[in-house]
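User: Could you go from structure to sequence for me? I need the amino acid at each position, not a summary. C-alpha cells:
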C-alpha cells in the first residue's frame, strides 16, 4: 500500500521560506532553548496534594451508578443507546449521555468499547502523568500524586480537556490501539532535534483542538492545506488560515490570464470540512478563514456567505428541509467554515470618517480598486445580521498583546477565534468549572482554584511534545512556542448564584478578578516549569519553522511587555466591596508571575483563552458555557448526530436562596420555570400566572435569548462589557 502522505508532507520542507530542520535543532538544549540561555533553578516540579486523598483513590471516593445512556430524536426514535455504563452517581443524565456517546472509545457491542467513566478518565490522566515522569517534569512519587489530583479533578467535574484529548490520549498507552496502523502525524523528536513522523497513529496522539495554518500563493501549498485540514478534522480538531497571500481575481498570472482568487479555493476547503467529521464521530469539522481588509477580493469575501444564505432560503421556500442537517443548507457553500475580516485601525477610521479605501495587489502592493470604507463596514454588519458572517478581527489590538512580536505578526486564528497566534502553531485547551470553587460561605476558594490551574497547565504543557501534529512545521513550532489555552466555564451561573445580574458592575468585577487570577497564576506556574525544563525556545531565539528571518532576535522584550500589560490592567478591574479580596489576589499573582518570569523565563508563549466549551461544559454539568450568560433558563440542544436534549438551569435555586426566598417559594418558582419555560409571569387565557419572583430580581435571571412566553433578555452591550472586563487578562481571546 502506498502512503501518499510521505510525498505530500515532505514537499514543503524544500521551501526556501521555512527554517531548515538543522536550524531548529542547532544550539538547542533538551527544552528547546538555546544552549547557555536556559536557567534551571530546580530539578523537578513539586506536586502538592490538594484535592485527592492519599489513603483513598479518587474513583473510590465516589458512589457509582449503572445507567443506560440513550438519546432520541424528535419523534422518539432511539439514535444512540448504550446499556450498563458506569458513571458517578453525582453526574447528571445529560453529562452521562454526552460523555458516553461522544467520548467512550470503541465500537458498540465489542470488547474494545469503554463502559465506564473511570476507564475514560484513567486512560487520559494515567498517560499524561506517566509522560510527566518520563520527561522529567516530576519524580515518580510526585507523578503518582499528579495522577490522583488530575483524575480527582476530572471525575469530580472541576475541569476538562478539549475533545481531542478525550478522543485520542491513552488509546495507545493503555489499550495498545494503533500498534499495527500506518504512520501517524508529526511529533517532536528530542534525539533528532526536529519533528519526525510517528510510527503509528496513536503513539503520539493529536491533543490540540486549535490550529492555525499558513498558505502560499501556489497550487502545491493551496492543495497541501486541504490535506492537512482533513487530517486535523479526522482526529477531532479545528483550524484557521489567512487567505490573504493568495492573489485576488483582479490580478494577473505570470503566464497570462487571471487567477481564480481565494474564494474559489474556499469552496474546496469547505467541502473537505463537509465530508470529514471530527474525531471520526458526529462532531462537525471546525474551520476559520480570514482575509485582510486590503485584499482585492475583500468585498466578494464579505458577501460570500450572505449570498449562499439567501440561496438556502429560496430552497426552503421550495420545500427543502431547512434544519441543521437538512438538504437546503447542505446544498449551498461555505456552511462548514467561519469567515472573518482582519480590519486595521486605518480601515475603521476610514469607515467612521466616510473615506475611500483602496485594495492592493498581493504580489506588487500597488493599488487595485477604490472602495468606500463605510459601505464595506455596513456590508459586514449586514452579513453578520443575516447569517452570522463575516466576523471582525481587530489587527491593532491583536498585535499589541502579541507575546512573540519578535518572530512575526499574527495573521489568523482558530475557528472560534479564541486562539490567536503565529501561523503553523497549535494550542491544546482545557476549562475549569467555576461553580466548583464557590464555598458554602459564598466566598470564592482562591487557593483551590490556583491549585487546579497548576494541575491543568502542567498537564497541558506535558501534552505538547507527546502529541502529534499534521505537518512538520506545526510540530516544530508547537515545540518552540508551547502555547496553551486554559479557560473556564460557568461564569454566568457563578454570577447568578451570587444574586447578581450578568449585566452588573458586580458581575464584571467578579469576572475580571477571576480571569486575572487564572492567567496570572498560569504564567506563574509556567515560569516555575521553566525553572525545571527551561523556557520556551522562542523566548531567546525568535526564529521558527517558516520564519528563518524574524523581526527581532528574540521575544524577551515583547513577552515581558505583555505580562506587564496584564499586570497594569489589574488596577482597572471594576471595584467591588464583595470581590475586592479577589482583586488583591490578582495583584499578588501577577507580581509573582513577573518576578519569576524575569528570573527563569516562561515555559509557554501563551497560557489562556476563553473557548466556547460546548461539549466539555456538558461533561462538567455546567449551566453556562465559557464567558457567556445563560442562553435561556430552559434550553433545547440539537445534537449534531440528531436528536434533542432539554436542559433546565440548576443555578436558579442557589440564586433565589441568596436573594432571601424561602424553600417553598423557591420550589414554586422552579416549578413555574419547568412548566412555562420562563421565570417571568405569563398570561394564560387572559389570566396572569405569577411566578413568585419579585420584580426587582428579574434582571438576575435575564438570559441571552428572550423566552418564548417572556419579554426580557440581556442587552447586547452587556456581552461586550463582560468581554472587556475579561479580555485584558487572556493570553489569546474570547470566543
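Assistant: Here is the amino acid at each position, in order:
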Amino acid at each position: 500500500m502506498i502512503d501518499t502522505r510521505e510525498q505530500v508532507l515532505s514537499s514543503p520542507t524544500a521551501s526556501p521560506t521555512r527554517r531548515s530542520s538543522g536550524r531548529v535543532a542547532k544550539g538547542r538544549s533538551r527544552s528547546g532553548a538555546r544552549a547557555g540561555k536556559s536557567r534551571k533553578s530546580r530539578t523537578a516540579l513539586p506536586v502538592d496534594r490538594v484535592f485527592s486523598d492519599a489513603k483513598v483513590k479518587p474513583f473510590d471516593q465516589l458512589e457509582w451508578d449503572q445507567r443506560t445512556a440513550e438519546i432520541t430524536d424528535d419523534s422518539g426514535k432511539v439514535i444512540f443507546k448504550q446499556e450498563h455504563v458506569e458513571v458517578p452517581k453525582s453526574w447528571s443524565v445529560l453529562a452521562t449521555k454526552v460523555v458516553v456517546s461522544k467520548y467512550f472509545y470503541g465500537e458498540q457491542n465489542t470488547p474494545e468499547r469503554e463502559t465506564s467513566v473511570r476507564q475514560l478518565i484513567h486512560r487520559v490522566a494515567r498517560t499524561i502523568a506517566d509522560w510527566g515522569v518520563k520527561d522529567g517534569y516530576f519524580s515518580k512519587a510526585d507523578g503518582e500524586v499528579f495522577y490522583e489530583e488530575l483524575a480527582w479533578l476530572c471525575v469530580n467535574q472541576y475541569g476538562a480537556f478539549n475533545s481531542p484529548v478525550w478522543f485520542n490520549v491513552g488509546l495507545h498507552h493503555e489499550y495498545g490501539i494503533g500498534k499495527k496502523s500506518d504512520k501517524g502525524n508529526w511529533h517532536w523528536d528530542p534525539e533528532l532535534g526536529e519533528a519526525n513522523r510517528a510510527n503509528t497513529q496513536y503513539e503520539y496522539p493529536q491533543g490540540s483542538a486549535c490550529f492555525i495554518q499558513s498558505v502560499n500563493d501556489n497550487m502545491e501549498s493551496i492543495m497541501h492545506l486541504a490535506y492537512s485540514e482533513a487530517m486535523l478534522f479526522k482526529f477531532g480538531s479545528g483550524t484557521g488560515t489567512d487567505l490573504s497571500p493568495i492573489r485576488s481575481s483582479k490580478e494577473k498570472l505570470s503566464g497570462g490570464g487571471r487567477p481564480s482568487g481565494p474564494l474559489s479555493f474556499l469552496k474546496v476547503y469547505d467541502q473537505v470540512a463537509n465530508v470529514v467529521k471530527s474525531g471520526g464521530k458526529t462532531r462537525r469539522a471546525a474551520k476559520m478563514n480570514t482575509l485582510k481588509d486590503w485584499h482585492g477580493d475583500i468585498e466578494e469575501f464579505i458577501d460570500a456567505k450572505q449570498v449562499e444564505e439567501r440561496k438556502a432560503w429560496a430552497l426552503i421556500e421550495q420545500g427543502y428541509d431547512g434544519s441543521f442537517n437538512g438538504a437546503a443548507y447542505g446544498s449551498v457553500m461555505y456552511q462548514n467554515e467561519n469567515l472573518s475580516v482582519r480590519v486595521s485601525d486605518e480601515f475603521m477610521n476610514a469607515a467612521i470618517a466616510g473615506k475611500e479605501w483602496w485594495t492592493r495587489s498581493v504580489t506588487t502592493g500597488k493599488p487595485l480598486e477604490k472602495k468606500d470604507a463605510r459601505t464595506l463596514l455596513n456590508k459586514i454588519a449586514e452579513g453578520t445580521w443575516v447569517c452570522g458572517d463575516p466576523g471582525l478581527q481587530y489587527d491593532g489590538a491583536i498585535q499589541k498583546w502579541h507575546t512573540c512580536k519578535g518572530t512575526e505578526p499574527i495573521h489568523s486564528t482558530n475557528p472560534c477565534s479564541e486562539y490567536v497566534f503565529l501561523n503553523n502553531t497549535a494550542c491544546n485547551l482545557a476549562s475549569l468549572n467555576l461553580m466548583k470553587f464557590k464555598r458554602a460561605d459564598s466566598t470564592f476558594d482562591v487557593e483551590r482554584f490556583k491549585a487546579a490551574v497548576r494541575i491543568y497547565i502542567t498537564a497541558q504543557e506535558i501534552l505538547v511534545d507527546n502529541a502529534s501534529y499534521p505537518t512538520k512545521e506545526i510540530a516544530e513550532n508547537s515545540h518552540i512556542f508551547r502555547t496553551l489555552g486554559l479557560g473556564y466555564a460557568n461564569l454566568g451561573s457563578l454570577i447568578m448564584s451570587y444574586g447578581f445580574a450578568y449585566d452588573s458592575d458586580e458581575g464584571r468585577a467578579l469576572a475580571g478578578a477571576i480571569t486575572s487570577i487564572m492567567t496570572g497564576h498560569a504564567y506563574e506556574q509556567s515560569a516555575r516549569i521553566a525553572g525545571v525544563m527551561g523556557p520556551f525556545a522562542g523566548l531567546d531565539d525568535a526564529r521558527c519553522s517558516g520564519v528563518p528571518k524574524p523581526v527581532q532576535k528574540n521575544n524577551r522584550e515583547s513577552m515581558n511587555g505583555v505580562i506587564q500589560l496584564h499586570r497594569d490592567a489589574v488596577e482597572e478591574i471594576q471595584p467591588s466591596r464583595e470581590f475586592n479580596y479577589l482583586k488583591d489576589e490578582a495583584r499578588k499573582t501577577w507580581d509573582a508571575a513577573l518576578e519569576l518570569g524575569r528570573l527563569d523565563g516562561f515555559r509557554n508563549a501563551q497560557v489562556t483563552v476563553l473557548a466556547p466549551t460546548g461539549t466539555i461544559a456538558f461533561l462538567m454539568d455546567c449551566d453556562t458555557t465559557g464567558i457567556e450568560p445563560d442562553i435561556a433558563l430552559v434550553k433545547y440542544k440539537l445534537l449534531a448526530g440528531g436528536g434533542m436534549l432539554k436542559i433546565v438551569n440548576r443555578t436558579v435555586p442557589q440564586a433565589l436562596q441568596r436573594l432571601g426566598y424561602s424553600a417553598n417559594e423557591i420550589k414554586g418558582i422552579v416549578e413555574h420555570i419547568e412548566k412555562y419555560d420562563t421565570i417571568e409571569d405569563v398570561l394564560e387565557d387572559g389570566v396572569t400566572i405569577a411566578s413568585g419572583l419579585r420584580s426587582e430580581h428579574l434582571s438576575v435571571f435575564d438570559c441571552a435569548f428572550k423566552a418564548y412566553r417572556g419579554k426580557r433578555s440581556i442587552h447586547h452591550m452587556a456581552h461586550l462589557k463582560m468581554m472587556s472586563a475579561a479580555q485584558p487578562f487572556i493570553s489569546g481571546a474570547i470566543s
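One structural detail worth keeping in mind: Residues 406 and 552 are 4 Å apart (CA to CA).
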